[in-house]
Design goal:
CATH topology of the largest domain: Rossmann fold
Bound molecules: iron/sulfur cluster
Shape: globular
Strand content: 5-15%
Helix content: 40-55%
Order of helices and strands: HEHEHEHEHHEHHHEHHEHHHHH
CATH superfamily of the largest domain: HUPs
Number of strands: 7
Distance between the termini: 39 Å
Strand order of the largest sheet: 1-2-7-6-3-4-5
CATH architecture of the largest domain: 3-Layer(aba) Sandwich
Length: 363
């Protein structure tokens, strides 16, 4: 069982085998200009992504749905979803972003006013600053608590779901509050509502998620089947990306500041944090020169892989130099720190400019 509200580290291979998630690499050759996260294996799995590939190839409409749960600060790992959304926007997708204030309230105890504030100041501001186009005609963002269509659909869909099923999927106990028990149905409706007739549905829909969110995907796909004759839903597709490792070597988490570089950090703070990151270096310089480092166990390398080195060739060279002991961690960290500094300098300027627009989005 996977708990979408815990921060446990997940064994990706086991998850793929256990829940029938297909390897993403098998589809790579069919995708025109795949996203770097796809090429580099960060997006490692999918369900029914062939439908999305076909829609992109044939120029048919398709939707991307991915929620944001405003319960804390946005860290650099969260940027991955925005990067994917920007890519999908260029591919002509309709984008739907539910702000999961109901989930935040029921699962994290965050009140609605705080959720709204966090959504604007943290998430929407950063999404705009990172380059997502909020003015695109096919872009939609909403608060769950204010979307009547989603609310109505969730209620109707709940008719064919029972408590024991939710207990089996999510591990709910007799003491779980009922708002928390109900909120997965809101998420199911978030994912399926772009397929309603009034939104031009049915249409292929993809949900890019971290693997911890797979229980929601499985539930949504099951419910889509149960309501096929009523709404003609196409079972939603999904992709799964690896989590970025935290600076300490644990999972990066907003609730554990020592593990995370926040997007609101100043360039100086971000650089300082990067310099504390766990590396895959050896005990001594001699040993590293002789046997090389281990980029697979290095948080600095992961930062380059996920965010800082767009050029595949350059990344391969860093990997090889590390493996062959041609580069030492001190120098490598210094090079990465310069990239982090530049990235955060640009981002903080863009965040300043994004603020006013962010304020107006939900009003
Ligand atoms: Fe990581 Fe660079 Fe050290 Fe290799 S040389 S382990 S990539 S910091």
């Amino acid at each position: 069982m996977i708990d979408p509200w815990s921060s446990a580290i997940i064994d990706y291979e086991k998850l793929r085998e256990q829940f029938g998630i297909k390897p993403f690499a098998d589809l790579l050759d069919d995708i025109e200009e795949p996203h770097p996260l796809m090429r580099r294996g960060v997006i490692f799995g999918h369900r029914d992504y062939g439908r999305i590939v076909k829609a992109m190839r044939e120029g048919n409409s398709f939707a991307v749905v991915t929620g944001m749960m405003p319960s804390g600060k946005m860290h650099i790992g969260h940027k991955m979803v925005v990067d994917q959304l920007i890519w999908y926007q260029k591919k002509g997708a309709e984008i739907y972003i539910p702000i999961a204030d109901m989930e935040s309230y029921s699962a994290r105890g965050v009140d609605f006013e705080t959720s709204r504030k966090l959504a604007v100041e943290e998430y929407i501001t950063n999404y705009i600053a990172l380059g997502l186009d909020f003015e695109d005609k096919d872009f939609h963002i909403y608060l769950q608590s204010e979307n009547k269509v989603v609310e109505d659909l969730a209620y109707k869909l709940a008719k064919k779901v029972n408590l024991s099923e939710l207990k089996a999927i999510y591990g709910f106990s007799n003491s779980t509050n009922l708002a928390h028990v109900y909120v997965p149905l809101i998420q199911v409706a978030d994912i399926l509502h772009p397929q309603l007739e009034e939104f031009g549905g049915p249409k292929p829909t993809v949900v890019p998620v971290g693997p911890d969110q797979d229980p929601h995907i499985r539930l949504t796909r099951d419910i889509a089947e149960r309501f096929k004759s009523t709404y003609h839903f196409i079972s939603p597709s999904s992709t799964y990306h690896r989590f970025i490792t935290g600076l300490t070597g644990d999972k990066m988490s907003s609730s554990k500041p020592k593990t995370a570089i926040f997007l609101s950090d100043s360039p100086e703070v971000a650089v300082k944090k990067l310099k504390t990151a766990k590396t895959g270096g050896k005990e001594t310089l001699e040993e590293q020169k002789e046997t090389g480092g281990v980029p697979e166990e290095c948080v600095v390398y992961e930062m380059l892989l996920y965010h800082l080195t767009p050029d595949d060739k350059e990344l391969k060279e860093i990997y090889r130099d590390c493996r062959e002991g041609n580069i030492m961690c001190g120098q490598c960290k210094q090079d990465a720190a310069e990239l982090v500094e530049k990235f955060f300098q640009k981002l903080s300027l863009k965040r300043e400019k994004a603020r006013d627009m962010a304020e107006s989005i939900l009003s």
